UniProtKB/TrEMBL annotation:
Its EC number is 7.6.2.9. It comes from Propioniciclava sinopodophylli. Keywords: ATP-binding, Cell inner membrane, Cell membrane, Ion transport, Iron, Iron transport, Membrane, Nucleotide-binding, Translocase, Transport. GO terms for molecular function: ABC-type ferric iron transporter activity; ABC-type quaternary ammonium compound transporting activity; ATP binding; ATP hydrolysis activity. CDD domains: ABC_Carb_Solutes_like. It is an enzyme of class 7 (translocase). Residues 34-269 form the ABC transporter domain. The keyword Magnesium does not apply. This is ABC-type quaternary amine transporter. SUPFAM superfamilies: P-loop containing nucleoside triphosphate hydrolases.
Length: 360
């Protein structure tokens, strides 16, 4: 049998909002501070006039069946707007959303068979844990429903919680119940909007593992919105990086890290030093600059007493390491991580060609 399962398609999607100049936060041109002179001029707007914000600007991507894709970007980059457009919660100014090639424009949100999970677990407080998980299973016969609830509570690591009140759960447990509830009806796509961002760091790292295991175990196709790079890289098969509504790059975590498509992507990922030819030559990377811009990341340099000697500019103690700032021959700064503060004025370093980014 020939199957035609292509999963989710996002084709040239544009999402625009009409915003009123009366909204808090909007500053009319006359009131803008002087230093904003370089910003593009907007036409003067009277209170009550409408203007539009383009939140998603011609984004195209695909999510294959069983694939987990992360939408990663800074606040305001358009991640949630794109997710809401996929869900059918935001109208498209242009473009198309498809599932297995079929246009979903005529399919309302509740008929798309997409599950959603948000930062707020939004459990029903009047229902116990089991009934929350059973919420989308009304079409299943009672005995099967109980088995499904048990199976998904098991999967999220809460096997004996069905009878518990939702008000007695910790934040992490509540998110696990929300995950079980959104997966139990077997949605063809799960949309996750920063579901872990309200949890503290330790719990968030743990929950990334839980989420990853559960999505893989159930073969769930998912789109996960986050502004946390570690979370995106740990969870996703491919990551879409957004800025100002535009898709900057859509690739595997490995490719994004080693071959960012632009300096903008490299900077976003934490590459801070873009080598001049002189600096690249000094570090033994000159041959790479013929075809690429070479960028150093946080771990591109390692200590090697026999390597090139660089002057120490400053040192800062971080969680579990010391961040040393070194000066390259051109005077540009480069970072080095060491376990303890260095006492000498210079450090010998070596560069691992596999640990630098090649741009372009
Ligand atoms: N309902 C709305 N009305 C007007 N403008 C909106 C609305 N929702 C979002 N925007 C604007 O659209 C742009 C993208 O917002 P969006 O919430 O999609 O970004 P985001 O990347 O999800 O941000 P965050 O990580 O802060 O949630 C922003 O400029 C935002 O101010």
């Amino acid at each position: 049998m020939v199957t035609n399962r292509t999963g989710l398609g996002v084709h040239d999607v544009v999402v625009r909002y009409r915003v009123s100049t009366q909204q808090p936060g909007y500053t009319t041109p006359a009131k803008r501070p002087l230093f904003s002179w370089a910003a593009p001029k907007r036409p003067a707007a009277e209170p009550g006039d409408g203007r539009t914000v383009t939140a998603v600007d011609g984004v195209s991507l695909d999510v294959a069946p069983g694939e987990v894709v992360a939408l990663l970007g800074a606040s305001g980059s358009g991640k949630s707007s794109l997710l809401r457009a996929i869900a059918g919660l935001e109208p498209l100014a242009s473009g198309r959303i498809t599932w297995d090639g079929e246009d979903l424009s005529g399919t309302p949100t509740h008929k798309r068979n997409f599950g959603m999970m948000f930062q707020d677990p939004a459990l029903f407080p009047s229902l116990n844990v089991g009934k929350n998980v059973a919420y989308g299973l009304h079409k299943q016969p009672r005995t099967r429903r109980a088995q499904t609830v048990e199976k998904f509570l098991d999967l999220v690591g809460l096997p004996s919680f069905a009878g518990r009140k939702t008000t007695e759960l910790s934040g992490g447990q509540a998110q696990r119940v929300a995950l079980a509830r959104s997966l139990a009806p077997a949605p063809r796509l799960l949309l996750l909007d920063e579901p872990l961002s309200a949890l503290d760091r330790g719990l968030r790292e743990h929950m990334v593992g839980v989420l990853s295991d559960v999505l893989r175990a159930t073969g769930t196709t998912a789109v996960h919105v986050t502004h946390d790079q570690d979370e995106a890289f740990a969870l996703a098969d491919r990551v879409a990086i957004l800025a100002d509504g535009r898709l900057l790059q859509f690739d595997t975590p490995e490719n994004l890290w080693s071959r960012p498509a632009s300096a903008e992507v490299a900077t976003f990922l934490g590459y801070s030093t873009f080598l001049t030819r002189t600096d690249a030559d000094a570090l033994g990377l000159g041959h790479l600059t013929a075809d690429h811009v070479v960028a150093l990341g946080p771990e591109s340099l390692t200590v090697d007493p026999a390597g090139v000697q660089l002057r120490v500019k400053e040192q800062k103690v971080r969680r579990g390491y010391v961040q040393v700032t070194l000066l390259l021959p051109s005077g540009a700064k480069a970072g080095l991580r060491v376990p303890e503060k260095v006492s000498a004025a210079t450090v010998g370093v070596r560069t691992d060609p596999d640990a630098v980014a090649l741009i372009g």
